[in-house]
Amino acid sequence: MSEKNTPIDKRIPVTIVTGFLGAGKTTLLNFLIKEFSEKKFAVIENEFGEINIDSELIVSKDNEIFELSNGCICCVLNDDLINLLYELLDSKKEFNHLIIETTGMADPGAVALNFITDFGIQQKYRLDGMVALADAHNLKQQLEEVEEVAKQLAVADLILLNKVSSVTPESLVELKITIRNINQAAKLYTCDFSAPKGVNLLNLKAFSAKFVLDTDFENYEPVSIMKKGLEKEHTHSDISSISIVMKGKLHPIIFDNWITLMLFSSSIYRIKGVLNMETFDKKYIFQAVGSQFVGELGPEWKDEERVNKIVFIGKKLNRKIIEEGFAKCML
User: Fold this and answer.
1) Are the C-beta atoms of residues 202 and 131 closer than 8 Å to each other?
2) End-to-end alpha-carbon separation of the chain, Å?
3) 134-188: per-residue pLDDT in tens?
């Protein structure tokens, strides 16, 4: 299908913003509201009592919906996200982008599942991507003490390493490697004051074929830094990435059964892959969040070797078991 004839996706894009306490989520939210004045945001907060949308932006309050001076709205998440998403649509308030800011301890993957598993929501909203903020000054200690910090990084499509001026250049290099060892598939940027100028946060299209195709699957191994002749480990967490590059055609039913079993029996948080499925002449773009996975056909295989490329992100992953299981899905 030509680009001219490609139907326009009129669904409302959704950005999930996550990060541990103090990472700078609220500051980022205020930055986005002011920086993209042409946008009509709807913002869902689930810790609104502790969060401060700039008071100068708030012009009125209707129950739990705050109207902002630039036409955006902000509302409080109680218990049921699905109902709130429909309520926003029924409210007749105009908005063209939804931002969900999770609590510092929340699992953003669980929030994302609402946009993957609910058919009605999928007709109205499009999950654009998950953005995770990390506090450069405290990240190392947080990773050692709180598992949710690594999990938030693991499921992200884009990671903002914030407050980078508070650490030395050497520490910044180590932090980047630490993040890469947790999630090699995400885009990684640095900033101060949660102000990532020039970074595409609102049009990631992270669940599109193009985004997955741009992932660097190859030549990845966990990295350590050599310092004073000693190798320093930079995992700080049981959560890591495993990238597999393997030739061969996948049997769709065997792969489907295997991946379903893996997602329900292992602590896998995110999967992205470009696969050579036996039944298709096109690249098969595969993604999983939590226990749910989606797939779509990408571009045709050209004069290139048909190689499967896939990355698994999760807790206490066993490379040998995953590689052997994946290999058994081949014809």
Assistant:
1) no
2) 30
3) 999 999 999 999 989 999 999 999 999 999 999 999 999 999 999 999 998 999 9
Euclidean distance between CA atoms 309 and 92, whole angstroms: 44
Q: How far apart are the C-alpha atoms of 135 and 171, rounded to whole Å?
A: 13
SS (H, E, C) 266-296: CCEEEEEEEECECCCCEEEEEEEECCEEEEE
Instruction: Report all structural domains of the chain as residue ranges with CATH numbers, in order of start.
Output: 7-206 (3.40.50.300), 234-327 (3.30.1220.10)
Do 213 and 205 meet the contact criterion of CB atoms below 8 Å apart? Answer: no
β-pairing, 73-76 with 41-45? parallel
Asked if 42 contacts 72 with a C-beta cutoff of 8 angstroms, the reply is yes
211: its two tokens: 């985004």
Q: For residue 310, what are its two tokens?
A: 């896939």
What's the one-letter identity of residue 295?
Answer: G
d(CA 284, CA 308): 9
Global confidence as pTM: 0.86
Element housing 125 (H / E): strand 125-135
Distances, alpha carbon 207 to alpha carbons 6, 70, 129, 157, 294, in Å: 17, 29, 7, 9, 9
